[in-house]
Amino acid sequence: MKLTHINEKHNPKMVDVGEKAVTKRIAVASGEIHMQKSTKKAILEEKTKKGAVLQTAIVAAIMGGKKTSELIPMCHNILIDGIDVDVEEIENGFKLIVTAKTTSKTGIEMEALTAVSIGLLTIYDMAKAIDRSMEITNIHLDYKAGGKSGEFRRDGK
């Protein structure tokens, strides 16, 4: 197996995507944050000291997706066509679902995953004064399409 991010001198390199075809690409990633019931209630009622937690987390997720190539060393800087963030209530917290799209030579999975991570970390940051026991879990890629490797579905369907 040839390692794609190592050159002939065994030094790190960024993969050359210059010859790849430009295609429409989409990635959906998700993750959860679990918390005390009182913390969830305070967030939903916007009664935390830091303001509108969920709306701020959505904006932070979008910003995180846009900054991915600055945070992940071998990640290409790509033009992002769009990022959409959904927040769902779960029994003991919230689930963030991020859909990211690009028309590019390389995928957008890392942008979706970074967006989820930053959004969840923002919720933690804004509510940590009332609940330091919050737990961020289950960050993963749910779906991707486009490019040479084709389609991936976590659920296998």
Beta-strand segment tally:
5
CATH superfamily: Molybdopterin cofactor biosynthesis C (MoaC) domain
| Main sheet record | 5 strands, antiparallel
Low-confidence stretches: none
Question: How many domains in all?
Answer: 1
- For this structure, what is the CATH class? Alpha Beta
Indicate the CATH topology.
Alpha-Beta Plaits
Helix content: 25-40%
Radius of gyration: 18 Å
Number of helices: 4
Distance between the termini: 29 Å
Inertia-based shape: elongated
Topology summary:
Elements: E1 23-34, H1 37-44, H2 53-66, H3 68-71, E2 82-90, E3 93-104, H4 109-127, E4 135-145, E5 152-153
Antiparallel strand pairs: 1-3, 1-4, 2-3, 4-5
Structure described in brief:
The chain is an alpha+beta fold and 157 residues long.
What does this protein look like?
- With 157 residues, this protein is α+β, with helices and mostly antiparallel strands.
- The chain has one domain (23-147): Molybdopterin cofactor biosynthesis C (MoaC) domain (Alpha-Beta Plaits), CATH 3.30.70.640.
- It contains four helices and five strands.
- It has helices at residues 37-44, 53-66, 68-71, 109-127; strands spanning 23-34, 82-90, 93-104, 135-145, 152-153.
- The chain has a five-stranded antiparallel β-sheet with strand order 2-3-1-4-5.
- Strand 4 (135-145) and strand 5 form a beta hairpin.
- Helix 2 packs antiparallel against helix 4.
- The mean pLDDT is 93.
